[in-house]
Amino acid sequence: MDWVKPKHRAGRSKEASAGEADNQTAIQWLEKLCVDNVALLQSSLPVEPKKGKQKPLDFPIHQYLQAMLWGIGKWDVAKPAHREFLHDLVDAFGAEPFGYSLSKSSRKGKQGRQALVVPEEIRAQQVAQASKIGKWITQQLPKSSYDPYVALTATGWLYALPEVGRDVPPALWLEVLQSTLTQVDRAWEQGPSDGLFPWVIWACEVPLALAKQMSHLGGKDRIVSETLNRLALLIEQTAEDPQALLSFGAQDLRAFVASLIRSRWAADSVGARKWYPPQRRALAKLQSILLHLTDATGHAMLDQTENSRHDAEFWTSLMKLCKDHKKVQLAAAVALPDQVGKLSGFKPAKLRKNKTNDARLPKPSHYWEKSHIVSMRRNWRRNDCQLALDFSGDSIWLDLCDESGKRIFSGDWDIALEYRGKPIHIDVAWNEVCWFSDDDVDYLELECDLEGTCTIYRQVMLMRQEGMIYMADSVMGNPQDTKADWKSTSTWTLDPTVSFEPQAKSNEGRIQRHSHDEQSNQDTSDPVALLLPLNLPEWRRGTTQGSLQGSPGKVILESRTTRPRLLSSLLVAVGSKSRNPKYTWRPLTVAHNLHKVSDDVAQGCRVQIGDDQWVFYRSLAPCTRRTLMGLHLSMEFYAGRFLKDDGTYEPLVEVSPE
C-alpha cells in the first residue's frame, strides 16, 4: 500500500499542490518534509503546544519505552545479543535513566503539568546512547528488519526521538528515518508474508509513531487514517482466526497485543478516532485468548516462566481498551494477580469468594483446533489445576499449575518406546482424536500412528470438581504378535522450583515446592502434588510392570509388558488432596462372559483419596460388553465418581468408538 498524500489543511493554498501526484511512498513523504533543511526539522523537536490549543492526551516518553518490553521473550533468532540493545534503549530513556529517577526532578510547569528535568550529564549520556543505537539500527535494518528485537529497538528509538532529536547528528538522524521508512514501504508492499509479528510494527506502529513525532509539521492526517484502517482490519482478522499468533507456543501473542496498545496511544496523541465496536469486540477476544494462556502469576504459559514477564501495566492498559466487555474484565480481575484487578477498580479477593460469578464469566477451557493448543482450568476463580498443552510439534509441551498458580510441570511431555530391547524412533505428529468439555471434565485424546509398528494414544483429562489430572499413554501393537516385549517411558518436565520425591515402600510420589523463608533464613519444602501410577501396583515389593521415579528436572514413568498392548497411566492430585495422608488405589478385575480378561485387552482401577473414590476403565482391544465392579461397559474409556450415599457411580466421561 502506498503512503497516501494528506488532505489539504484549512487556509493552505490548493494551487501549491495542484500538480503533485496523488500517492507517495514513505520515503517520498520524508523527503518532502526534509526538502528545506534537516537541521530545521531537528530543531523543531520536541514541540510544545501553542497557547490556547489543547494537546491531546499523551503519555511520557519513558512510559512508551517501558512498554517496548511488554511481551518480549527469548525468540529463536540468529543473533540473540540484539535483545541487549533493546534493554539498553529502555535503560537510557526509562523512568530511571542511568540510575537517575525522573520523579526526583519533577517540578510544576506554569499550567500545573509535571515537567521532567533531566540533568545535563544524564542528557549527554542519552544522546551518546541514542547515537550508538542509531548507528546499530542503520546497520541491522537492511538484513535483519524482521528480527523482533531489531524492530522493537527501531520503534523505541522513534519514541525517544523528542528527547534527543536536537542533539543527534543530523546525518545519522535522517539515515535512521530513511532506513526505517524503507522497511515501512517493504511491509506495505509485501504484507505479513514473513510473519504477523513484527510485520504489525513496521506496517502500523512505526507510521503512527512517526505521525506522533512529526504531527507539528503537517502531512499526517491521511497517514494516521490509512494506518488505523489497516490496523482495525488486522485486529478483527486475528481475533477471528488467531492461528498465526498461536504458533510456537503463542510466543508472539503478547508482543503483538502490546504493539496494538502502543499504537493506540500514539493514535490518541494526535487526536485520531477511537476504535469502533467491531475493533473493541476483537480486542476483547484477544484478551480472552491471552487469559487462557496465562498462569495466575501473570506469566505466559507454553514457555518457561523465566522467559516471560508479568507486567501489571500491560494488563491494565489492555483492560482499559476493552472496558465495555464486562465478562473478560471480570475474568482478568479474578484470574490474574490482585494488583491488576485493584488497579482496574475491582476487589479480586471478594470476587473469588462469590461463586455466583461463575455464571458471569467466560467458559474456563478452550481448544484451538487449527493451532493444536488446549487450555483447561477448573474455573476462573480457582488457580489450581490450570493446564495448557501444545501438540503442534513432534514433542508435546505441557504446563500444569498448583493451587497457588505456580508451575508443577513445565516443558516437554515425552514418550520413548522400546520393542524387544531396541528403541523405536518417534517422529510423527500428534493428531486429535477426541475433545470433550462440560461442567465435570475437560478431556483430550491424541493419536500418533507409527505405521507398521504400533499406534500410541495419549489421554489428558481434567476432573474439574476434584482438582485432579488423569494422563495416560496406550501403546497398541500387532494383536497377532506372540513374542511382544514392550517398554514405554513417559517423561514429564518439572518446573525448576519443584522436585519429585518417591515413597520408599510404595510406587507413588509427591512433588515438593522449594522456597526460601527470608525471616528465618531457612529453606522450606511443601507438598504441592500427589502422583499415583495407576497401572502399577501400590507396593514396590514384587513390582515387575515398571516404576515411577525421578531424575534431575524430570518425572519418569516406566511400564513394561510381554503382550501386544500396554497402558501407562498417571493421576495427579493438587490442592488439599495432594496433602491428604489417606489414599490408595487397586487394580480391578475386568470380565467378559464371566471370564477374566488379560491386561492387554482392558484394564480397570479404583482410586481413593480421603473419603472420595473414583473408577477408571480403558479398553485396549476392540470394544465389547465387559464388566468391572458392578459396571457394564461397552466403550473405550470410562471415568466415574463413586457415590457413597447409595453405592452407585456418577459418570464423568464416557468415550465410545465411532
Unreliable residue stretches: 1-22, 46-54, 105-113
Instruction: Quickly count the domains.
Output: 2
Span between termini = 50 Å
Radius of gyration: 30 Å
Total count of strands: 30
Number of helical stretches of at least 4 residues: 17
Q: Kindly name the structural category.
A: alpha+beta
**Percent of residues in helical segments?**
25-40%
What oligomeric state best describes the polypeptide chains here? Answer: single chain
- Spatial shape: elongated
Q: Roughly what is the average pLDDT, rounded to an integer? A: 87
Main sheet, how many strands, which sense, barrel? 9 strands, antiparallel
Strand content: 25-35%
Could you explain how this protein is built, in words?
There is one protein chain. By secondary structure, the protein is α+β, with helices and mostly antiparallel strands. The chain folds into two domains: 57-99 and 115-360; 366-579, Beta-galactosidase, Chain A, domain 5 (Distorted Sandwich), CATH 2.70.98. Helix content is 31%, strand content 28%. The chain contains 17 helices and 30 strands. Strands 5, 6, 7, 8, 9, 10, 15, 19 and 20 form a nine-stranded antiparallel beta sheet that branches. Helix 4 packs parallel to helix 6, helix 8 (170-190) crosses helix 9 and helix 13 runs parallel beside helix 15 (326-335). 43% of the residues are buried. Mean pLDDT is 87; it is low at 1-22, 46-54 and 105-113.
